[in-house]
C-alpha cells in the first residue's frame, strides 16, 4: 500500500472545506489522502485586522512550513491570503477552477447597498472593501470586522436575535401584549447552531451589513441554513482582491507537484490569477493597500480591471485593459509600471504610511 498523501491546511471550518475539495480531486488518483490541520498566526491573533497583523502571509507561513519540513506533501491556501513572494523551494503545484470572485453585501433582511440608511454601519476587515464602499456611499460608517465567516455572521445577526429574544421573554412574563406560538426556550431550540452562538455573543458594534467574499460564503455552506440575505456587488465598482475566489496548492517535490497538477490544475484560472498576482507584486501593495484586480480570460486576451484607491475612497487610479494571453505575465508587469507612474504608487505609499508599514 502506498503512503498517504498529506495535505496541510488551516484549521478553520472554511479552510478545511477548501482542503476537502482538493482531497476529493486527489482521492480519485490516490488511495488515501489525509488532512493535517495547522493553527496559524492569523488564527491565533483573532482580534487584529489583517492589515494590523504585521505583514502578509499571516495565514500561510505555518501551513507551508509543514511542506518544507516534510510533514505534508502539499498545502492548500486561499490564493488571496498568499504573499507575492514565497520560499524558493515551494511552487504552486495546482490552481483549481475558480469559485465566484466577487464580494457580497450581507444583511439580516435583504436591504440593498443603495437602500441602506444614511450613516448605516458596515463591517469589513479589508481596506480595499472600505475604500470601495466609501467611494460608492461616502455617508456610510465602515467599521472593523474580524473573525472567520461564522464569527462575522454571528456579529451581524446578534443584535436582531437578541432583540427578538427579549421580546419573547417580555411576552412570556406578561410585560407586553404580544403573543408568540413558541416559548423563548422553544424558539431558541429551533435556531441553528450559528444563530444560537450569535444570541450569546455581545458584539461591540451593531452592524447593519457586512461585506464578505462570495466564494467563502459558498464554501462555508451556510446559505439556506441561516437567516441572512446577500446582494452581489458589481465587480466593475467593487473590484475583488487579487486571487479572490481561487485556491492554490503549494508543493516542494516534483512527485507532489505532478500529482497535484494532474488532479486539480485549471489552466484558465492559473492564467488569470497569474495576471492578478503579478500586478499586485509589481504594484507592491500586499494586504496593506486598497488594491482590487480582477482578470478574465477571453480568447486570446486577458481582460483586466484594476482599481487602486486611497483608504477613504476619495481618490483612485482605475483602468481596464486587454492583455495578450500569450505573454500575460510580461504584459501585466508593463501594465503595473504604467499604473505606478499614473499615481498608483503614491496611493499605495500613503496607505502603507497610514498603516505604519
Describe the overall structure:
This protein has helices at residues 13-27, 41-44, 61-68, 127-136, 149-172, 184-189, 193-199, 214-220, 254-264, 267-283, 328-354, and strands at 5-10, 33-38, 74-78, 91-94, 103-107, 121-123, 141-143, 209-213, 229-232, 247-251, 291-298, 301-309, 316-324. It has 357 residues and is an alpha/beta fold. The chain folds into three domains: 1-96 and 246-265, Periplasmic binding protein-like II (D-Maltodextrin-Binding Protein, domain 2), CATH 3.40.190; 103-232, 3-Layer(aba) Sandwich (D-Maltodextrin-Binding Protein, domain 2), CATH 3.40.190.10; 266-357, Double Stranded RNA Binding Domain (2-Layer Sandwich). The strands form three sheets. It has a five-stranded mixed beta sheet with strand order 2-1-3-10-4, sandwiched between helices. α10 (267-283) packs across α11 (328-354). The longest helix has 27 residues, at 328-354. The mean pLDDT is 91.
Shape: globular
CATH-derived topology of the largest domain:
D-Maltodextrin-Binding Protein, domain 2
Structural class: alpha/beta
N-end to C-end Cα span: 50 Å
Helix content: 25-40%
What is Rg? 22 Å
Element pattern in H and E: EHEHHEEEEHEHHHEHEEHHEEEH
Q: Detail the poorly predicted runs.
A: none
| Average pLDDT figure | 91
CATH architecture of the largest domain: 3-Layer(aba) Sandwich
Report the sheet-strand fraction.
15-25%
Specify the CATH class of the largest domain: Alpha Beta
Q: Largest beta sheet, briefly?
A: 5 strands, mixed
Give the strand tally.
13
How many distinct folded domains?
Answer: 3
Strand order of the largest sheet: 2-1-3-10-4
The CATH superfamily of the largest domain is known as: Periplasmic binding protein-like II
Number of helices: 11
Amino acid at each position: 500500500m502506498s503512503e498517504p498523501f498529506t495535505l496541510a491546511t488551516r484549521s478553520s471550518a472554511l479552510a478545511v472545506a477548501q482542503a476537502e475539495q482538493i482531497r476529493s480531486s486527489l482521492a480519485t488518483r490516490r488511495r488515501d489522502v489525509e488532512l493535517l490541520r495547522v493553527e496559524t498566526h492569523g488564527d491565533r491573533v483573532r482580534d487584529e485586522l489583517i492589515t494590523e497583523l504585521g505583514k502578509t502571509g499571516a495565514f500561510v507561513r505555518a501551513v507551508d512550513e509543514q511542506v518544507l519540513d516534510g510533514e505534508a506533501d502539499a498545502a492548500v491556501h486561499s490564493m488571496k491570503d498568499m504573499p507575492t513572494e514565497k520560499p524558493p523551494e515551494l511552487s504552486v503545484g495546482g490552481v483549481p477552477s475558480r469559485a465566484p470572485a466577487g464580494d457580497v453585501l450581507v444583511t439580516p433582511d435583504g436591504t440593498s447597498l443603495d437602500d441602506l440608511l444614511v450613516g448605516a454601519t458596515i463591517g469589513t476587515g479589508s481596506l480595499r472593501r472600505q475604500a470601495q464602499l466609501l467611494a460608492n456611499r461616502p455617508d456610510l460608517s465602515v467599521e472593523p470586522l474580524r473573525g472567520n465567516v461564522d464569527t462575522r455572521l454571528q456579529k451581524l445577526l446578534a443584535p436582531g436575535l437578541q432583540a427578538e429574544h427579549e421580546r419573547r421573554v417580555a411576552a412570556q412574563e406578561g410585560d407586553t401584549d404580544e403573543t408568540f406560538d413558541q416559548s423563548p426556550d422553544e424558539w431558541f431550540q429551533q435556531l441553528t447552531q450559528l444563530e444560537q452562538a450569535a444570541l450569546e455573543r455581545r458584539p461591540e458594534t451593531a452592524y447593519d451589513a457586512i461585506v464578505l467574499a462570495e466564494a467563502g460564503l459558498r464554501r462555508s455552506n451556510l446559505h439556506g441554513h441561516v437567516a441572512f440575505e446577500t446582494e452581489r456587488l458589481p465587480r466593475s465598482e467593487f473590484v475583488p482582491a487579487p486571487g479572490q475566489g481561487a485556491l492554490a496548492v503549494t508543493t516542494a517535490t516534483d512527485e507532489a507537484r505532478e500529482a497535484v497538477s494532474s488532479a486539480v490544475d485549471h489552466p484558465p484560472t492559473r492564467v488569470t490569477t497569474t495576471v492578478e498576482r503579478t500586478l499586485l507584486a509589481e504594484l507592491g501593495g500586499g494586504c496593506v493597500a486598497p488594491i482590487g484586480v480582477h482578470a478574465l480570460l477571453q480568447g486570446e486576451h486577458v481582460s483586466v480591471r484594476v482599481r487602486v484607491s486611497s483608504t477613504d475612497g476619495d481618490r483612485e487610479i482605475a483602468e481596464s485593459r486587454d492583455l495578450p494571453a500569450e505573454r500575460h505575465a510580461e504584459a501585466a508587469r508593463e501594465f503595473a509600471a504604467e499604473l505606478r507612474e499614473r499615481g498608483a504608487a503614491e496611493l499605495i505609499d500613503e496607505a502603507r504610511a497610514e498603516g505604519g508599514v
